[in-house]
Specification:
Layout: H1 3-23, H2 26-43, H3 45-48, H4 82-118, H5 120-135, H6 138-148, H7 153-161, H8 166-180, H9 183-190, H10 195-231, H11 242-251, H12 254-257, H13 260-288
Length: 296
């Protein structure tokens, strides 16, 4: 058996073992089921909703109509179905959360591996920059970036991604230092392995489980941050998102007028999806760092 096939065999066995361990996490399974359902609804939303749902004129319902037989979740201030708006908004909120979390984890992983591998002045500089981002409130930095840059989903993703990576960087750096202290890293160096080879072929695969857990947890934080930015009027006004629905409900006076059905659907959706991602992330963490009695 060749060396590459042996490596892939071990990786498949590890993946199967992690899958069986995840199936023992009841909370993680609940979160995963909720995410799969949400993802399916978001992907099929264009087939389920009216193509003209984004138009504010000629809506099929009465403005601010309470939940009923025709409109299960009621209507907004323009008479549009809140259920259809919720399905369309799921696409934007999930996409922003996934992209922002991926950007954040990518930056944090790169900084952490480089700082942990090279050490010395390079680690000092990178960690001081990381500390600066850690002491600055993430939401404040995201608001500043979203204010000075052009409005759009790209700006929101950038604002969230470049302000939420420090935690990942510190965790990955610590894991990198632990991995590079193992004997096989010394053997790789003795055999002529360069820095890029060691970081890419030996260190990165070892820190990937930690990166996966951080990505899952980061998505929920990114969705909440996107909703906050949209609620503050800093999102893209041309797209429908859950945060944008909350901002429109606030602007329409839903709180003072008692139109609770205008606020409840996007708020509950944000909370449930954030909880589902958190449950998945915690389940992965428990698998990677098992505690006595975990999974019972």
């Amino acid at each position: 058996m060749s060396g590459s096939s042996l490596v892939w065999r071990r990786r498949r066995a590890t993946a199967a073992r992690l899958g069986r361990a995840y199936l023992a996490q009841r909370a993680g399974l609940f979160g995963l089921a909720a995410l799969v359902l949400t993802g399916v609804l978001a992907l099929t939303a264009p087939l389920l909703v009216d193509p003209d749902i984004r138009e504010v004129t000629g809506a099929p319902g009465e403005p601010l109509q309470p939940p009923g037989g025709r409109f299960w979740l009621g209507t907004d201030q323009f008479g549009r179905s809140l259920l259809e708006l919720l399905l369309i908004g799921a696409r934007v909120s999930l996409a922003v959360g996934l992209l922002a979390a991926a950007l954040s984890v990518a930056i944090g992983t790169l900084v952490g591996i480089v700082a942990g591998h090279y050490g010395g002045w390079c680690a000092t500089v990178l960690m001081r920059v990381t500390d600066w981002f850690l002491v600055m409130p993430t939401l404040v930095l995201a608001i500043v970036l979203a204010t000075v840059l052009d409005r759009g989903l790209g700006t929101v993703v950038l604002a969230i991604g470049v302000t939420s990576w420090p935690t990942t960087a510190r965790l990955v750096r610590a894991q990198t230092i632990a991995v590079e202290a193992r004997p096989y890293i010394e053997r790789a160096r003795a055999l002529g392995g360069g820095d890029r080879h060691i970081m890419g072929r030996h260190v990165l695969p070892q820190v990937m489980p930690l990166v996966l857990a951080q990505t899952t947890l980061g998505i929920s934080a990114a969705i909440l941050t996107e909703a906050t930015l949209a609620f503050l009027g800093l999102g893209d006004p041309t797209v429908i998102s859950w945060g944008g629905m909350l901002q429109e409900a606030r602007a329409a006076g839903a709180v003072s007028s008692g139109h609770w059905w205008y606020l409840a659907p996007p708020g509950v959706a944000i909370a449930l999806v954030a909880l589902a991602f958190t449950l998945c992330g915690r389940a992965i963490e428990r698998i990677l760092t098992p505690e006595p009695g975990a999974g019972r």
